[in-house]
Amino acid sequence: MNTNSLFSPFDLKTLHLKNRIVMAPMTRSFSPNGIPTDEVATYYQKRAEGEVGLILSEGTVIDRPSSSNDANVPHFYGEDALKGWKKVIDGVHEAGGKMGPQIWHMGIMDNHHSGWVPPAPFEGPSGLNRPDFNNGNTMSEKDIENTILAFGKAAADAKKSGFDTIEIHGAHGYLIDQFFRAETNLRTDVYGGKTLPERNRFAIEVIKEIRKQVGNNFAVIMRFSQFKPSDYNYKLAKNPQELEAWLNPIVDAGVDILHCSQRRFWEPEFEDSDLNFAGWAKKVTGAPTITVGSVGLSNDFFGAFAGESSEPTSLEELNRRFDRGDFDLVAVGRPLLSDPNWVTKIKAGKTDQLKGFSKEALAELVLE
Length: 368
Ligand SMILES: Cc1cc2nc3c(=O)[nH]c(=O)nc-3n(C[C@H](O)[C@H](O)[C@H](O)COP(=O)(O)O)c2cc1C
Hints:
Blueprint lengths: L9 E3 L2 E3 L3 E3 L14 H12 L4 E8 L17 H16 L4 E6 L17 E3 L3 E3 L2 E2 L1 E3 L2 H21 L4 E4 L5 H6 L15 H4 L1 H14 L5 E6 L14 H14 L3 E5 L15 H9 L3 E4 L8 H5 L10 H8 L5 E4 L1 H5 L3 H6 L21
Parallel strand pairs: 3-4, 3-14, 4-5, 5-10, 6-9, 10-11, 11-12, 12-13, 13-14
Antiparallel strand pairs: 1-2, 7-8
Helix pairs in contact: 1-2, 3-6, 7-8
The protein binds flavin mononucleotide (FMN).
The site of flavin mononucleotide (FMN) has 23 residues, from strand 4 and helix 9.
């Protein structure tokens, strides 16, 4: 298997990567009271030592009272949490790696199974996490304004701490995605609307605030998904024209790289073409894209949450699409959660040593 092209450098603004492999953001819940520990720093440093081109952190939440439903998800605010993150990025740089935090607000959530609840009710565009499931407050204009400022502050702090980029979490049914989705955004003010471009407004204001905070030369990534965890077949954009109308304003507002989340990267996004989500996003916007979803694995990641393991598979189809120019970067989740040396093994062609993914890996921060 020839994976040479995945090992070419990538340069955008001040972001310089030695290869095209990105560690996908993965929530680990190993940061008690929102503070990343030294073990979390070691976990990321090991992936940098293992030659991951770009590490995206697990989702890390902004400074809003109910931005998280989990006491062990890291914060990206407050002196102690930011000190923890400083150790993370310094460790990654020491090992020659590059990294960006995934900046997150969960929006309206299910209550966590631990029974922990945030100090204020969840907040979202219309109190809804999904159709017919209301579990919090509808945001006022003041809430929206303060949330936008909190996203900007997190981005400014990321840059100040020395991170190489940031990723805005706009996918998987969380706050920003709740604004995108008609069934969870019933607003009649400027943040709602019948069309996706109208419901883009919140995301665009977040992006503009972030861009104002980090300046023009700092690479900003944003993650999107058509699917929702409550509906795998959901499509925000039903055809390439709708995709163009959704994503072009996002790029114009200041996003440099579109991270297109799919469960399986080989699945075509629309009829009459084998292009996947990242392939179409690149085609309609011209912006660089990241693909993701079961790269090198036999099973998708929702299977992992249901306790399923996954076997290693070939990267041939991935390479075919990469070499065709469909996308610029490739994110890998579970293989890197299980094995910090996945990239070096792929590079050396040691495919017989790949571990795949076992559900046991979720219970710990795998360091070897
Ligand atoms: C344990 C776990 C936690 C995840 N947490 C996040 C997250 O915080 N943010 C996010 O955007 N995606 C999250 N995801 C999705 C991954 O980023 C990725 O898109 C998904 O696992 C598919 O990639 P894979 O098939 O290579 O694992 C998570 C996935 C897993 C397995």
